[in-house]
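Design request, tokens follow.
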């Protein structure tokens, strides 16, 4: 299906795209028919990184599979051709089409409230991740006195993938942590953030909520970033913050606060985006790639889009260069899929919370 080209805002100083409404431009472009090699200005960064433009010779724009990913999945030459041929014909090895997700399973409240304010587990096929949220009172940054703080950290369990044993998962954990921050928190100032940092402020310049978001990869079969993004959204939906009573104090004194044990405020997740990763295999894109499919990719672009159709963040993985027009096509596809994915996630989260209430 052809998708229209798009206008897009420039990157900010941290590499994240500033908040921008996606506006289609006349002139449909069928991205599946792009066969020529990128020319001139190419977008090329390794791992999960912000997009940037670099000038390179077309001869150097080689599509190579990142060695770290290829090393995790041992495939024969025949299996590689089978995977690529299936994607070419829009029939993947598990029977899905290129833009079809695996079944999504969501469970909330998987960690006791004594240890976390909110938690959730998300399964995408054989990919299994857990996210938890711990809220603590803190002091705002002097640079942004009217905003709270969010810190995101991801760990990869050694049992999730043989390559994660020992210190093998540390590099990927770091990359996923940074990628999640770019997709959910926008720039340093919070511009474009999917999480509204101003809602975490209690007393400007003096007291705010600090949210510590922890992600854990339990089992890995591809599309980890999207699964972690969904788990964070579900965990935040499950998060309840105690109501805070602030005692009056002089302007130069630290006010005293009292946390309620009975009244809680539900965290607003209406602006939390969905992360859609498009993996480029050959000249086609797929969503929710498995580990085997990702081992054959040339590059992947992850776009976080909220319900209002605004881009909250964008990262790229893989060593192959991408022409800016291809990036625009990828963003168009992500926008097309985001409504469907957000509705599905919201439905699964609501069902999981209903089950949790029935248990109590």
């Amino acid at each position: 299906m052809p998708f229209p080209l798009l206008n897009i805002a420039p990157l900010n100083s941290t590499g994240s795209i500033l908040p921008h409404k996606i506006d289609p431009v006349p002139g449909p472009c069928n991205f599946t028919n792009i066969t020529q090699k990128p020319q001139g200005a190419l977008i090329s960064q390794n791992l999960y990184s912000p997009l940037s433009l670099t000038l390179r010779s077309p001869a150097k724009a080689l599509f190579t599979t990142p060695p770290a990913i290829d090393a995790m999945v041992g495939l024969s030459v025949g299996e590689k051709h089978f995977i690529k041929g299936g994607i070419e014909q829009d029939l993947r090895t598990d029977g899905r089409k290129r833009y079809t997700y695996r079944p999504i399973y969501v469970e909330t409240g998987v960690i006791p409230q004594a240890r976390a304010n909110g938690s959730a587990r998300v399964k995408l096929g054989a990919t299994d991740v857990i996210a938890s949220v711990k809220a603590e009172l803190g002091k705002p940054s002097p640079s942004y006195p009217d905003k709270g703080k969010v810190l995101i950290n991801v760990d990869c369990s050694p049992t999730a993938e043989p390559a994660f044993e020992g210190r093998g998962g540390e590099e990927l954990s770091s990359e996923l942590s940074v990628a999640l921050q770019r997709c959910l928190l926008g720039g340093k100032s919070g511009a474009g953030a999917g999480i509204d940092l101003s809602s975490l402020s209690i007393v400007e310049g003096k007291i705010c909520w600090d949210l510590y978001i922890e992600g854990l990869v339990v089992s890995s079969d591809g599309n980890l970033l999207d699964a972690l993004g969904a788990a964070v959204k579900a965990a935040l939906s499950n998060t309840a913050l105690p109501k805070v009573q602030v005692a009056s104090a002089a302007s130069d004194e630290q006010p005293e606060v009292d946390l309620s044990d009975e009244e809680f405020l539900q965290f607003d997740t209406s602006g939390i985006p969905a992360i859609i990763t498009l993996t480029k295999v050959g000249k086609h894109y797929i969503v929710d790639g498995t580990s085997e499919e990702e081992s054959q990719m040339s590059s992947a672009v992850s776009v976080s889009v909220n319900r209002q159709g605004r881009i909250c963040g964008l990262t790229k993985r893989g060593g192959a260069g991408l022409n800016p027009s291809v990036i625009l096509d990828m963003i168009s596809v992500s926008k097309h899929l985001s409504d469907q994915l957000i509705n599905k996630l919201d439905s699964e989260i609501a069902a999981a919370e209903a089950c949790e209430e029935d248990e109590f």
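Comment from the thread starter after seeing the answer: thanks! DSSP finds six helices and 16 strands in the chain.
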